[in-house]
Every structure is written in structure tokens, then in C-alpha cells.
Amino acid sequence: MTISNRRSFLKTTTAAGAGLFAAPYIAKAGLSKKSKNGEVNIAFIGVGGRGRGHLKRAASTEGVKVTAFCDIDPEAVEKTQKILSDLGKPEAAVYSDGEHAYLEMLKREDIDGVIISTPWLWHTRMAVATMKAGKYAAVEVSAANTIEECWDLVNTSEETGMPCMILENVNYRRDAMAVMNMVKQGVFGEVVHARCGYRHSLLDVKFNQDLKFGEGAHGEARWRTQHSLTRNADVYPTHGLGPIAAMLDINRGNRFLYLTSTATKAVGLKDYIEEKGGKDHPNAQLPWKQGDIITSVIKTTNGETIIVTHDCNLPRPYSLNFHVAGTDGVTDFDYGHRRIHIEGQSKAHSWDEFQAWQDKYDHPLWKKYGEIANGAGHGGIDYFVTREFINAVKEQRQPVMDVYDAAAWSAVTPLSEASIATGSTPQYFPDFTRGQWIKRKPVEFV
Question: Could you tell me which residue ranges the Glycosyl hydrolase 109 C-terminal domain spans (predicted)?
């Protein structure tokens, strides 16, 4: 990419105002390969449970053709072709000859965008290869595992002109979008603090019924558990952090400055294994590294603080721990626990029911597409995240959640790891926008 083109790319990614998201410069390699009938062609790398969900929604969308997918699991391949058949769609080309078969798939001319739903360690390299092949990339969370990988995503997107979207579905949660509307409209006054996290018992995900994980296991136990054994870090920060980042205009007039992280001792997985398999089970003897609860505090350049919690190794119900506090009010909103207080409108020192406020500030996307979305996964939010990627490809624009978001949100993992390892010292976020955050304007989810 020439210097002038790169400047054009950076400039146009900042062009969105408070209204609709403006379409930026996109390298010619992208949608010049549209199908003759006007369809956009979407391919998939990884069609396990998560990938098949995206594929089914994409294949059900008007103007979308699923041309190819890559997965090395024969069962996943069979289930995916059945989805297409049940929808009355033609079978897609399959690439399953080894872990790097996706590279062969990316050579195809009939692919405009690629959705990546694979184990974490593959996310960055697959997204980078997709962009280098001249195709839109959409990558599941987290998008990167190291600071170097975060830069790989940003540098590749800028150099190729191809967008990279992080598929953070919780940004579309109905109550989170209503609170975002309230924040943008000043209901809470000036926001000073927020809280979020991922608090969700994954004990039955990290181990199969026979307490097996790693090679020979099935599902996420094949790869996810290893991170708890080797990394003392918040390895999954974006579900909670993404919506808060959108509320606080991160990368668009504001940015993450630094964080400090602290981890508890690591006893939850050992206790679970001992209860299920006895104290002498070999997995109970492993040196589990990840603290059961990891607490990070982020400071932004505009002065807000954000508490981010990772809590997946202890028994507990699902929670994203949302909280927003400002000069005029405060809200806690989570499944089973939602309340709000707005000074001058709520009874003194009392909480209001959240639902009435959500109804009042319900986001236009939910008003328009709520009935359709409710049939999709995770209470409907999966519908919106798949829809946004497809629309970005169709409209040849940057997605609302762009490569700079993917890098900044994912950077919490390596920075939390470094902070914990050095006695909770502050770790500074790189400025992935190279100063452009100062001029970039807030966007709306459209």
C-alpha cells in the first residue's frame, strides 16, 4: 500500500460521526470478486458449534452464498453440510487436509469474507492470512494472545486495506445497548467508573466427563484448559470489556492507558478434579497456574476506571458483572440482578426497576430486528454480530468493531499476565491507532 493510500485508510476509518458509520477506503482486492448475481461469498475457518452457528445465520441471509469452509474434524464437516442441505443450499467446498488447509481455501477467487471460529492460538495467524489474501476477516474472541499478535492484526489491516472485525457478540446484548444509549444521551451525567467481567463456571467445559483434557479430549477441553495450566492471565476479557469500551468511546476520542492486575491463588481446578476423580488423580497433581479470580483495573486517558474480572475456575452462575457509574446516576445490570438509580428521577437512596429504563432507551437495532434476532443464539445477540460482518462486506466498509478494537480489547490478556508476574505493576497499552484515536469520532451500531 502506498503512503497516500495508507493515509486514506487511516483517515476514512475515523470518518464516522455520531450518526451512521461511514464507509472507508477499502483496497481493490476486496469485493471486486463479487458473484455475478450480486451475492457476497462467505467462507468459514472452523465449523465447530460456534462456527456452525455463524454459518447457519449467514446461509439464511439474503444475498449471501457459503462457498467453502475449512475444518479437520469429519463430524463437523458432516454437520455443516447437513445445515446447508436442510436450508436448501448447495454443498460448500471443503478443505480438511491438515491444520493449514485454510491457506489453500484462501486462494479461491469466490470468497469475499471469512469468519474464523477456531481455538485461540490460531485466531491471529488465520486473520492475518485472510487479509493478505484480499478478503474481509472476522475473528472470534479473543482476537490475539500477545502484544505482537495485536500489532500483527493492525499492521496487516493497514498494509492490505482489508478490515478485520472482532466478533464480540455481547456488544449487541439488549440491556447493554440500552445502557450505551443512556450513556451517549447523558442520562448518567459524566461517567467516571465501570465494571465488567467474565464470571462463568467453565469446569464442565475444561474437562470431559472422564476429567480428560488436551489431546484425545473433545470439545473445548482439547485446547482451552491448557491456558489455565500455563498462563496466569485474564485470557477472556472481551465479553465484558467490549460493551464498556463502546460506551466510553475507546479508540474514538478516548483510549485505554494502563492496567494493573492481581490474581488469587489457583485451587479451583484442583478441587474440582479431586471431587470428581479423587485426590490421587494425576490431573490433581498438575501445577495449575491461572488464579481462580483475576482482577484488572484499567485507567483511560479521559480519567475513567474500569474493573475487569475473570472468574471461570470456581462454581458460579453466569455473570458479566456490568456496572456503570456517573455524576447523575448508576446502574447494575446482569442476568437476575438489574437495577438503576438516576438522581432527581429515582426516589432518594432507592433503586428503580431496570426494565422500564431499558424499554425507554431500547436501541433502534433491537426495535427493528428484535423479533428476528430472538431466534438466534445467546438471546439474539449472535444474530446482530453475524449481520454486522455481512453488511460490512456487502457495503464495502469498516465494521463497527474494527481492527483497533480487536487489538485494544485483546491486549488485556498479555498485559494482565505481565502485571501479575511483576507484582501487579502498571502495564501500559500500546496506542494501536498511532495517535488517530484523538481524531476518530464515536460510532453508532447500525
Answer: 177-353
Which residue type occupies 339? R
Note whether 192 and 325 are within 8 A (CB). Answer: yes
Q: What is the model's pLDDT at position 21?
A: 31
* d(C-alpha 236, C-alpha 214), whole Å: 19
The per-residue b/e assignment along 298-337, b for 16 or more CB within 10 angstroms, e otherwise, is bbbbeebebbbbbbbbbeeeebbbbbbbbebbbbbbbeee
- C-alpha cell at position 181: 444509549
What type of residue sits at position 27? A
pLDDT at 293: 98
pTM for the structure as a whole? 0.92
pLDDT of 375 reads 81
Distance CA 228, CA 203 (A): 11
Task: Tell me the backbone φ, ψ of residue 366, rounded to 5 degrees.
Answer: -75, -35
Q: What is the 3-state secondary structure (H, E, C) of 27-44?
A: CCCCHHHCCCCCCEEEEE
Distance CA 15, CA 13 (A): 6
Give whole-number Cα distances, 109 to 2, 34, 35, 105, 253, in Å: 24, 9, 10, 9, 38
Identify whether the C-beta of residue 76 lies closer than 8 Å to the C-beta of residue 402. no
pLDDT reported for residue 2: 38
Structural domains for the chain: 3-169 (3.40.50.720), 171-364+403-438 (3.30.360.10)
Burial of 4 (0-12, 13-18, 19+ CB in 10 A): exposed
Distances (CA, A) of 138 to 120, 313, 362: 13, 29, 27
Cell of 269: 481446578
pLDDT at 374: 87
pLDDT at 37: 58
Cα 360 to Cα 353: distance, rounded to the nearest angstrom: 12
Picking from 123, 77, 436, the residue whose alpha carbon sits closest to that of residue 255 is 436
Query: How far is residue 334's CA from residue 337's CA, in Å, rounded to a whole number?
Result: 5
Phi and psi at 234, nearest 5°, equal -80, 95
In whole angstroms, what is the distance from residue 433 CA to residue 250 CA? Answer: 11
pLDDT computed for residue 11 by the predictor: 38
Q: What is the mean pLDDT of each run of 10 residues along the chain (446 residues)?
A: 39 35 35 59 98 98 97 97 98 98 98 98 98 98 98 98 98 98 98 98 97 95 98 98 98 98 98 97 98 99 98 97 98 94 97 98 97 91 98 97 98 99 98 98 91
pLDDT value at residue 319: 96
